[in-house]
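Standup notes
- DV: blocked on the single-chain target, sequence here:
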Amino acid sequence: MSVKAGLALLKAEMGKVWRSPILEITIALMAIMSVTAVTSLNELVVHSEFSAAFQSMIAGSVSATMILLLLPLVVMCAVLMSLSFARDYEQGLMQSVLSLPVSRRLFFITKFFAIVLPLVLISWVLTMFFVGASFYPDMLLVVKFSCYILPVSFLSLMFCGGLSVLIALVIKRTIPSVLTAMLANIFFWFLTTIYTKKSLFYANYLCLTPYKGNLVFLDKILGIDPRVGLDVVNAFEFSLPANIFGVLTIFYACILVIPMIVYFCRRFEVCE
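- DV (later): unblocked, structure below
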């Protein structure tokens, strides 16, 4: 199929997924979570004369905003992705579309990125808006640091989307797929709330989990110290460099998406 046909299919899929009020609900939910990361103007005035402290505060605000956005991001991605695949299969729409001269690979990619790309864009815009509300004297720096949100949120949603598609294609029923995908991704998100402490010996390895590793990667490229207990000096967050976490996030982004594309194109049976 031509690029023009692929773009038309992507546009149609985005129109179906993001029809009102889904888009409004998503933006409102993420905005409510983001607004709590806004730094008070009093704190801004105290530090605005110090360039290094000012940049550090912007980086910390970007990181804090991403932490708050992660839960609504993965929840909305899990719900919409499982809805998109399971509902289309259950209602027979997938069978109808694939009976036409439509590439399975293109069909999968358009359905997948029709959900991932808008969520990435929304997270980036909201981060710039709410961080900029606190640090408006240097919007150029705000935009620069906010751009780090783009690869981190994209790679996080790749893993979330891959897991959700796997669940949807296995269960093939709308409501069970949505609930299972949402709970599975909330479980991985919950691991990000556990900080490394000696009393929790396993917590030292949690930085290697999907969403936790992505947040550590963001902190490292922003130059923020890892969020670990002060009594843990040999935690992985300290000992591993940023490029290791970068490779780890890419690995998690591909570990389910690529097999799902191969399975959908070669093995998945669309007729019961």
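- Follow-up: Residues 171 and 177 are 6 Å apart (CA to CA).
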